[in-house]
Amino acid sequence: MEKALHHWPRRGNQPEGGQMILNIERWSLEGYPDCDTIQIIFHFDDGIQSDMHPHPGHSYKGMETMAYLPQNSMGTKILRQLEVAFQYKLLFTVVASSSGEYCVTPADIPLKPLDGEGSGSFGYPDPNYLKTVRKSLKVKGIK
């Protein structure tokens, strides 16, 4: 039997003070016609980079973004895993934009916006998203 790579999730470098706000929307995501929708709002104020960021002591621009999950058993399980990932500071990071300004941006765990929202992302329908995000969370030690 193989040993688990991670007993606990490792900590990321997501900025302090972010918020993860949950809403239940009474409409269905495309591809999930029989359930309501979980809306997750992530909010970060502007701040100062810490030692775990690319340029400590310099400012970064905050952000607000939304992600969506179907309110079914798999979507609810993934929501709980995303909450753990948020607590372990794994969902967001600080990077330099193409203009050189530092800003908060999603890290490498994929978040699903509605179609047309988000930067370079595609929304629903996406029949592989729930499997994809579960794999990404598992790699980080979140089961």
Main features:
alpha+beta; 18% helix; two-stranded antiparallel sheet; 143 residues; disordered N terminus; globular; three-stranded antiparallel β-sheet
Description:
The structure is a single chain. With 143 residues, the protein is an alpha+beta fold. Helices cover 18% and strands 26% of the residues. It has helices at 73-87, 129-139; strands at residues 19-25, 37-44, 47-48, 59-60, 63-70, 92-96, 102-106. β6 and β7 form a beta hairpin. α1 packs parallel to α2. The longest helix is centred in the middle third of the chain and has 15 residues, at 73-87. The chain is globular.
Q: What is the count of β-strands?
A: 7
Strand order of the largest sheet: 1-2-5
Oligomeric organization of the protein chains: single chain
Give me the strand/helix succession.
EEEEEHEEH
Q: Percentage of helical residues?
A: 10-25%
Secondary-structure blueprint:
Layout: E1 19-25, E2 37-44, E3 47-48, E4 59-60, E5 63-70, H1 73-87, E6 92-96, E7 102-106, H2 129-139
Antiparallel strand pairs: 1-2, 2-5, 3-4, 6-7
What's a concise summary of this model?
The protein is 18% helix and 26% strand. With 143 residues, it is α+β, with helices and mostly antiparallel strands. It is globular, with a radius of gyration of 16 Å.
